Amino acid sequence: MTAVGADLESYLRDWSASFPWAGETTIAIQPMPLAPGRERHRGFNQAAWIAERMRVAWNIPGNRSALLARRPSTFAQADLTHDGRLRQANISGTFVATRRVVGPVLLVDDVVTTGSTAGEAAQILMQAGAPRVYLATLAVGK
């Protein structure tokens, strides 16, 4: 494991009681899915890497199959201005639930800028049955 991974896992263990989802007895961890072409281009999904560190740090067993899939959006969100309306329009309709969700979900993303992507993903998860959706991110964009 990398030093960054070990540091992140240590932080997650040390501060786990302070997270808003700490009281949940079970929780599904869902990394923010990338558009298929974007993931092929990058070769990995950084949100999935972060989510895996969370699973290890909190010793969460179980099903790692995705609750969400992502269709390609018109433009990469990072390439758009910080105009929330433009980003929301771009991401609308790009997520689909892969199955019924039966418990709370921790949605994990690397960077949140306007919250459009996270909001759209959370809405789809709740429509699929999630009673609560939490968001964890490493950075907030300007």
Automatic annotation (TrEMBL):
Coiled coil: none annotated. Transmembrane segments: none annotated. It comes from the Bacteria. InterPro entries: ComF/GntX_DNA_util-trans, PRTase-like, PRTase_dom. Belongs to the ComF/GntX family. This is Phosphoribosyltransferase domain-containing protein.
